[in-house]
Q: What sequence folds into this?
């Protein structure tokens, strides 16, 4: 397992570097790194420090956050289909962010944006946990997820269509599909602190999730408080998914694909899957963000398009497996 | 400003009302840009209705004048009920609406947007002919030509970048590009072979090192597309105060002379 973590670490570092070196300006790698380290005047340092660095750092943070939240939700709900983007948690976060932006709250207080988004995410994940619970039933989870996603998407579209701004309605695509294009360090500083505290909460719940694999009764007998575990999970996921969605839009499938690929490699132990899924999520999102810049550099192809192309077939495969396994 | 006032005086210098069967008596314009040319040229009482956008001071250089006409919203039903004998539409008008109006027996003239000074001159002559207002058109054209000659500058004012919401820029074949060139700026869009309005990655804008940044006007409400214009990289790359494109930039009308003047 040590080899797995070392390999993932190397992969993330290589992709992060590749993300810094990818862009339409075509700056030579040596010049790019020199400008990033030494700074200075001129266009190259501005491109590296103000445009590419925040993009690469956000890709790292958002990807890791989505992978971690996916692994945590799957561990708690004991269902491989649970994923923040698919079951409406990201959608609710987007709705919160859009409301904060359109009411002008986000302008009057900078923290209003991440707070509104994490409130939306908390509502979404809280509703799901209340409805589906840790018993692993797929039907309730999927039905609740479909309803919450639809409601959040409709609410977001409604708010943007009511806006007096002619550009607002076009932004429905961003909120549904996500993008890291042209974000700045301000976005990173807005999102990173809550995301780190959310990650700390989720990692602290790792042992509780391990115990839960033996069943609710066994977990309670081992001293895991169900209410405490639930609280940590809801707060942790909301703290990560809310701010991540507020700055990067709703990016689906990362939290589904990554835990699925890594679960068997860590012996299906949730506490070990959590850090592995965080690293894998960062690698997947960085790779997707490099790909959108290489495939259609001028068109700002949305990140969620790529993750959905990879993730949706896997999602169908998982549904097929849970169906034929008779556990519905 | 004086220039604008002089042009607005045009329709007030009333000639005799148009005579003859070929001259339309009830004209409806359903496009923001043709609205303004028509208001500049029409005889009193000849123009019945202009689009509702013409009343919007953010988009229309003649918002006050437009209040003197009934507003239409580009819908076939309301336009038909105005009983026009000539409908002037822009090329962006909804195809089914124009087709329906023609099927109802109305004369609909569709005008291309004027994206250059030459096209504005042609549009003035064309609308003047449609309205049977050849003298008014010749008069407006002469004043426009004098303004263009006055605004032309030989000196180089440096490199400028146009940057709008969602990271769009305009090249030389657009009205904004023409305004920029006429004011004596070199457009950085040419560096990347951009002649029309298209997306320009912010990295490339920064690498072009413009002396001056000209951004789009802000609308009420918020949008991510416009928030892009507050990106710190833009402030660092082009520290000179950004000029804002406004209603004088929207349409190919003689009012672009005010936009050129404002760039000095």
A:
């Amino acid at each position: 397992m040590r080899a797995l973590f070392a390999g993932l670490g190397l992969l993330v570092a290589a992709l992060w570097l590749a993300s810094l070196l990818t862009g339409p300006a075509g700056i030579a790698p040596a010049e790019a790194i020199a400008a990033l380290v030494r700074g200075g005047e001129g266009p190259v340092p501005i491109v590296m420090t103000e445009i590419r660095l925040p993009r690469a750092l956000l890709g790292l943070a958002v990807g890791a956050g989505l992978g971690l939240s996916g692994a945590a939700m799957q561990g708690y709900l004991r269902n491989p289909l649970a994923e923040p983007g698919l079951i409406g948690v990201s959608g609710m976060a987007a709705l919160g962010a859009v409301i904060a932006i359109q009411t002008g709250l986000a302008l009057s207080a900078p923290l209003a944006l991440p707070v509104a988004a994490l409130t939306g995410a908390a509502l979404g994940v809280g509703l799901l946990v209340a409805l589906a619970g840790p018993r692993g039933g797929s039907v309730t989870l999927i039905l609740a997820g479909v309803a919450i996603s639809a409601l959040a998407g409709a609410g977001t579209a409604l708010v943007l269509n009511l806006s007096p701004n002619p550009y607002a309605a076009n932004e429905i695509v961003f909120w549904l599909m996500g993008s890291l294009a042209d974000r700045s360090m301000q976005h990173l500083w807005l999102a990173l602190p809550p995301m780190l505290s959310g990650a700390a909460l989720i990692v602290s719940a790792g042992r509780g999730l391990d115990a839960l694999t033996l069943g609710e009764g066994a977990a309670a007998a081992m001293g895991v408080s169900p209410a405490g575990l639930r609280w940590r999970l809801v707060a942790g996921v909301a703290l990560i998914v809310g701010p991540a969605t507020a700055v990067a839009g709703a990016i689906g499938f990362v939290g589904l694909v990554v835990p699925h690929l890594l679960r068997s490699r860590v012996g299906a132990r949730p506490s070990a899957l959590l850090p592995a899924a965080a690293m894998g999520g960062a690698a997947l999102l960085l790779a997707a963000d490099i790909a959108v810049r290489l495939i259609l550099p001028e068109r700002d192809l949305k990140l969620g398009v790529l993750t959905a192309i990879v993730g949706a077939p896997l999602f169908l495969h998982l549904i097929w497996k849970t169906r034929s396994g008779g556990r519905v | 400003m004086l220039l604008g006032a002089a042009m607005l005086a045009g329709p007030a210098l009333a000639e005799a009302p148009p005579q003859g069967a070929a001259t339309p008596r009830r004209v409806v314009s359903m496009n923001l840009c043709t609205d303004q040319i028509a208001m500049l040229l029409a005889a009193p009482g000849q123009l019945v209705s202009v689009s509702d956008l013409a009343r919007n001071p953010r988009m229309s250089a003649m918002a006050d004048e437009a209040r003197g006409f009934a507003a239409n919203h580009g819908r076939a039903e309301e336009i038909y009920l105005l009983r026009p004998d000539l409908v002037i539409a822009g090329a962006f008008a909804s195809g089914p609406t124009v087709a329906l109006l023609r099927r109802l027996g109305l004369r609909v003239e569709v005008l291309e947007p004027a994206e250059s000074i030459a096209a504005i001159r042609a549009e003035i002559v064309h609308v003047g002919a449609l309205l049977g207002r050849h003298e008014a058109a010749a008069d407006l054209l002469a004043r426009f030509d004098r303004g263009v000659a006055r605004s032309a500058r030989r000196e180089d004012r440096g490199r400028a970048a146009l940057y709008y919401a969602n990271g769009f820029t305009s090249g030389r074949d657009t009205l904004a590009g023409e305004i920029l060139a006429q004011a004596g700026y070199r457009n950085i869009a040419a560096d990347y072979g951009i002649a029309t309005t298209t997306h320009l990655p912010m990295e490339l804008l920064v690498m072009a090192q413009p002396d001056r940044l000209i951004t789009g006007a802000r609308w009420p409400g918020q949008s991510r597309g416009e928030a892009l214009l507050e990106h710190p990289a833009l402030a660092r790359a082009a520290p000179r105060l950004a000029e804002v494109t406004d209603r004088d930039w929207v349409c190919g009308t003689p009012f672009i002379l005010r936009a050129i003047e404002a760039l000095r």
